[in-house]
Amino acid sequence: MEIELLDLPAAVVAAEPARLVAPEPDHAQLRRDDYWAGIPGFAAVSAAEFQTRAFQTRQTVTSLAQLRETLRDLAPESFYEDMALGLKRAPMALRISPHLLSLIDWRNPVADPVRSQFLPLASQQVPDHPELRLDSLHERKDSPVPGLTHRYPDKALFLPLDSCPVYCRFCTRSYAIGGDTETVEKLKLTARALERWEDAFRYIASRPELEDIVISGGDTYNLKADHIRLIGERLLRLPNIRRIRYATKGLCVMPQKILSDADWVDELTRVAELGRKLHKDVVVHTHFNHPNEIVGVTQDAMDRLTERGITVRCQTVLQHGVNDSPATMQLLVRRLSYINIHPYYVYFHDLVPGVEDLRTSLGAGLALEKHVRGHTAGFNTPSFVVDTMGGGGKRDAHSFESYNRETGIAVFTSPSVKPGAFFLYFDPLRTLTTEQQARWRSPAERQRMIAEALEQARQSTGR
After folding, report:
1. CA 350 to CA 279: how far, in whole Å?
2. Closest by alpha carbon to 458, among 402, 386, 388, 410?
């Protein structure tokens, strides 16, 4: 039966607002040019050589001197000086692949979103938040054996190694990943690695409630092919384990490995096939933060994994100046979906030394999430989460018990992980008023603000 407009309630009869929306960027148009040709050190390199794991690994930049040799006069002397001081203050050593280096817009590197994540500039660094702790998520405190974190009832995090193909300057495990820096002496996870793995396997087998294991690090991209198989098979053959996830940023930083390291991909495929045979779930979790990181070779690598029946999900970190605008985050989500990567989480940035310039306020992220939700299919829409300081685990960003936008303090609870405890999130001080920033500089005022936030949370929860 056809209903005429006049029969509808008045609240429903409303003129559709004018759509003053700019043309949407085409998420399907991926770069397939020789994007590395503008880098002096790579200008003479053919596509056949550049798009291989061997070249990417061999030419990975690990020092400022090597960066100068690769870029030459592409960057001004002031940039190198700025970065030299930035590295002195950074918790992570320098390690960036030719692929990533070539994706940076060297006409304006200071504002480039890829550069921001991997090459620290002192001119952009701001003081750390006064409540920062090196292992803010308490991964070591929740570690029953070295290299294993058991926080959630049915899930554990297994860290078989402490190296990555590149080093993100914002790494939440800056307490352990990579070599020592001038600001951080790292926890070493490489010692007696195989013995440590056996300790982890024994612990997992002894806990029947464990069903889900995340294999991370470091980065599983750096595991040898036979170690991919060894770890996967050992876990899948434990009767209590139902799901395993290999965590790697490799698809973003070095997709060439998927296309040229057949042994590694074959072993990953065998583990996924074994999982299907045992009716268990094997997936890959990866990490992209900006749509510029997704180019033609990224799609080629994902096509290879899709052909092998391997599911890939993405965990993005929300970063100021990188992806905290609606247009950028919408494009990232659509582009990930286009190449068959499922957007899974958008994490609010952890409190990490030396990268306070990259953090956003909770309010800014909540506003951004409104623009992302509804932009594409629900199953390709990421959840915005806070991985709480103190080991409360991931909480939906909207689920805070209290949030004072003036002091920048949010309080969360995590009843399924640590019942009765409160967990805090702190907005960057630069997002607060001058008056509130002055309060934070006073230790007494700081404790007063935190106490008030906790009391408000107690009242809201009836405790």
Report:
1. 35
2. 402
Residue 12 C-alpha from the chain's centroid: 42
Whether residue 328 sits in one domain with residue 346: yes
Total number of domains constituting the chain:
3
Residue 170: predicted pLDDT:
87
- 164 and 237 belong to one structural domain: yes
Q: What is the domain extent for residue 89?
A: 40-118
| CA-wise closest residue to 31 among 271, 295, 211 | 295
pLDDT tier for residue 219 given thresholds of 50, 70 and 90: very high
CATH of the domain at 293: 3.20.20.70
Is pLDDT above 90 for 299? Answer: yes
Tell me if 4 is assigned to some domain. Answer: no
Q: How far apart are the first and last CA of the chain?
A: 54
Residue 461 has pLDDT above 60, yes or no: yes
3-state secondary structure 185-204: CCCCCCCCHHHHHHHHHHHH
> What is the residue-averaged pLDDT of the chain?
91
Provide φ and ψ at 422, rounded to 5°: -110, 145
Query: Is residue 16 one of the residues assigned to a domain?
Result: no
Let me know whether 308 and 225 are in one domain: yes
* pTM beyond 0.85, yes or no: yes
Whether 229 and 209 map to the same domain: the answer is yes
In terms of Cα–Cα distance, which of 293, 160, 296, 172 is closest to 229? 160
Residue 27 lies in a domain: no
Minimal CA–CA distance to 100: which of 207, 251, 282, 228? 251
Residue that finishes a domain, picked among 350, 370, 397? 397
**Taking residues 187-216, what's their average pLDDT?**
87
